[in-house]
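Protocol step 4 of 5: obtain the predicted structure for the target chain.
Materials: sequence only (see below). No template structures provided, no constraints applied. The aim of this step is simply to have a reference model before the mutagenesis design in step 5. Sequence pasted as it appears in the construct record:
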Amino acid sequence: KLVQSDSINVNYIRQLAIAAEKNEQPELAILNYEKALTLNPKDVISGTRLIDWYLRKDELLKADSLSASLMTADSLPELCRLRGDVLYRLKEYEQAFIAYRPLLQKGTSNPDLLRKAGICQFMSGETEQSITMLSTALMIQPDDDITCYYLGMAYQATGDFKKAELYIRGAIEKSISQNISVYYHRMAKIYESAGEYKNALDAYKNAYRYSGDDLATKAGYQYEIGRVYEVYMQDTLKALEHYAYFLNAQEDTSDWQYK
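Step 4 output (structure tokens):
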């Protein structure tokens, strides 16, 4: 009723959006937050809620445009975090770290923020700094498989294969998700770099084992298994067996290739 009586009152429209959120009506919430911002483009409260909704719905271009616009007028911690998250999702890692930096400088014990900042540093080539950041995140949240995985990646980049193996193994042990196949694949690469070819082969086989139903992924792992048999084990027959699986998958014209 308040909105009907005063249809250009930003506070009323924002309250309607909040009520829609509480009633699990996301589309109505988004509509009203957008309306509030149209009336007042500097409404940071509506803006931050709207960016969050855009991220949830994977509307990254809208989230990018809105967060960049609001950052020119304000630098509230929540806005910095969201701006960083948008850039992180867009794989703009250096810019994402810059957005996170004010929060990090104030000191934070948020493991999600520390993990994302550490990943940003790793992806930007700041390997030693990423290890420090990711290690702090893991101390706070020891059961985070993703942090373990990127610590393994970072140590692999430094040439410390023992620590890389330790953390990737930790990621595998902690993982209850589809990521376990990715973790075994990384473990295989670490073993291969360290010259432990039998262990690499076993890890590739486990990556294949846990790769789910995605035929393209499974075929890729079969190729890797065949390559290890051919290059390191000098077992041509085994290599051809796995290469055949890979080649048959490439010739498959079923719908999975086009999804």
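Step 4 remarks: Confidence is low (pLDDT under 50) at residues 252-259. The chain is about 75% helix and 0% strand.
Proceed to step 5.
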